[in-house]
Write a structure and sequence with these properties.
Chains A, B: This is Helix-turn-helix transcriptional regulator. Chains A, B: Pfam families: PadR. Chains A, B: InterPro entries: Tscrpt_reg_PadR_N, WH-like_DNA-bd_sf, WH_DNA-bd_sf. The structure is a homodimer. Chain A has 2 domains: about 90 residues, Arc Repressor Mutant, subunit A (Orthogonal Bundle); about 100 residues. In chain A, about 55% of the residues lie in helices and about 5% in strands. The radius of gyration of chain A is 23 Å and the shape is elongated. The first copy, chain A, is mainly α and about 200 residues long. The first copy, chain A, has 7 helices and 3 strands, in the order H-E-H-H-E-E-H-H-H-H. At the A-B interface, helix 1, helix 4, helix 5, helix 6 and helix 7 of A face helix 1, strand 2, strand 3, helix 4 and helix 5 of B. The first copy, chain A, binds a DNA duplex (30 and 30 nucleotides) through helix 2 and helix 3.
Chain lengths: ~200, ~200
Amino acid sequence: MDVRFTSEDGEAVSLRHGLLGLLAEGPASGYDLARRFEEHLGPVWPAQHPKIYAELSRLSDAGMIEVDSHGPRGRKAYRITETGLAEIRRWLTEEKVDHTLRIESVLRSFFFWLMEPDDLQAHLRREQEFFAEIAEVARGYAAAKDRGDFGTSGQTRSMRVAVEAATRIYQALADWAEWARTVPPAVPATGDDAAPAARAADGET
Amino acid sequence: MDVRFTSEDGEAVSLRHGLLGLLAEGPASGYDLARRFEEHLGPVWPAQHPKIYAELSRLSDAGMIEVDSHGPRGRKAYRITETGLAEIRRWLTEEKVDHTLRIESVLRSFFFWLMEPDDLQAHLRREQEFFAEIAEVARGYAAAKDRGDFGTSGQTRSMRVAVEAATRIYQALADWAEWARTVPPAVPATGDDAAPAARAADGET
DNA sequence: ACCTCACATGTACCTTGGGACATGTACTTT
DNA sequence: AAAGTACATGTCCCAAGGTACATGTGAGGT
């Protein structure tokens, strides 16, 4: 077949491999996958069902997956093929990892100096609470896995590893937000005007 | 003016506010911004110059920025306007934060069970080294700021906060990778075949 | 018998992101 | 004087993401 998957040099695409990975656990329909994406990968990698169905078609055309069964209301479950399994294994071992973070909270922090100190404090408090909360949820989830609530299969162990990442990252962000609240709000500014910027580099043509 | 920025309900767009934020520090050209994006926000928020120029045009049309000066080789420096400054402040204080992580390393971990134990160990070792390395770089950068190498302006303090986030997150990821290496590689498998999956739902057409 | 809700799959459109390609200018080195 | 490099701005196209819209089915309640 001739389907072009990776533009020329072989860049990776996430949704595709996410779907292959989930299908490697066993057959599932687009609907199932949409839910599992939301439940399991949700906070880490969002995916909407239209994209999922579209991607499934493409994967099917490429021979990476095939229809496993037809169910009640038009339900179509897909099964991963040897080709698909080989592809996700290749991706996991050979394709280099994209390490960019893309965390909006962090991006925003570059511009904290533009915020009123009070607004910033309130913002950081909310952020801290939020991150601490999901960190706690993640910890609870990790504990359940450690108790063996979900068995000891390879999938479960991998989930456990992923959950550990979530725990640590969210906790790190919660700690960070807490720490950030202790950073003094820069020099006292001019007094009458709270806007410290926008003048700079006085005009020449 | 009538330019529609945020599709209906007011969703945020990152590049736009990233540019506004950088311009709030003072006038800069597209070229400058492309470099600053790469140097400062690089690992957190990648942006290519074509997008930057395009976005600058749009921001200019919207009255958020305006041409500040013309330089040597067609160089056009932009300056943020009051409107633009108000917009980024509004974004910072009013717009709710998107907390999704989108970290490929973590996404991959969901599928670690598909990897050969040896490959996985090698992978985790590389990941650990990589994360530890940038964490160290970030720490060095933080130390330089703490020594006051870059002054004590609001911008610098915000940068310091952002760097702290990078430090903590990368360190968390390094620790996570190290921890993950100690997780036993699931049940011993069948012995003759190292591929534990892909059979499920055994074949009929 | 009807209604409603969860299940299930898709199309259409618009925006965003990324890479390739194109163009031209000033400075610096040989 | 020529050549190379860093500066500087952009167009074009395709892939990917996100939202809205459209459609139909089966199970369970009233």
